[in-house]
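User: tokens in, sequence out, please.
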């Protein structure tokens, strides 16, 4: 961009050049915010912060797309991140839901 400026009644030509990386408009969201949504494309960082890792913090971002081609993992991560074991509370909840499912199937087995 070139602009002329008046300095001491003389016209001085001042040239300014700007360089920048091309940017693509995008947005980000937390794992909890993305639950229940299906995204067209998803870029995921699986390097977890220090501290306990929740199963949802790994599973949810990986499962937001319909096709593997629409998922991009941006950097290397520890394989153990994918092997998060469910907590005791989560296991107990799954057992409780299984019991409800079994009793529902028994109760309504003849209904088509």
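Assistant: Sequence out:
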């Amino acid at each position: 961009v070139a602009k002329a400026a008046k300095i001491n009644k003389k016209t001085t030509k001042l040239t300014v050049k700007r360089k920048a990386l091309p940017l693509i408009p995008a947005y980000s969201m937390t794992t909890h915010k993305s639950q229940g949504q299906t995204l067209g494309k998803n870029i995921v960082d699986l390097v977890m912060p220090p501290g306990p890792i929740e199963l949802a913090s790994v599973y949810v971002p990986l499962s937001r797309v319909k096709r593997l081609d629409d998922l991009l993992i941006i950097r290397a991560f520890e394989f153990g991140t994918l092997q998060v074991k469910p907590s005791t509370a989560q296991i107990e909840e799954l057992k409780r839901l299984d019991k409800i499912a079994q009793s529902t199937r028994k109760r309504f087995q003849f209904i088509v």
